[in-house]
Specification:
mainly alpha, 3 helical TM bundles of succinate and fumarate reductases, 4 helices, 77% helix, 0% strand
Amino acid sequence: METNKPPVFLDLRLIKMPPAALASIGHRASGIFIALLVPFLLYLLELSLSSQEGFNQATLLMESTGAKAATILVLWALFHHLFAGIRFLFADIHIGVNRESGRLTALVVIAAAPIAAIIAGLMI
């Protein structure tokens, strides 16, 4: 039996996702971001270790305002990935898997990661 219904158009911007979904998507996105960032970080490390001039270039590069903002973003990715990973490890051993605690831990991950990134970024 065929129906002539048009395809459903889903506008992802209008879908209200639960905190657990946002934490999960953020975990995946931060992992990809960190993985894509590794070549640049290795280049920066190699530059800083190559010579005194290379170290000075790397230092100058990292002292710019844009680099400091990027550092905060990288720290957010690292902290979000760490906190969400710990949350998933607890879920793997059946701790915090009910709806209420899952929502609470997802909100903690979402809130704690940027706070930790800003605090760590201010210490640099």
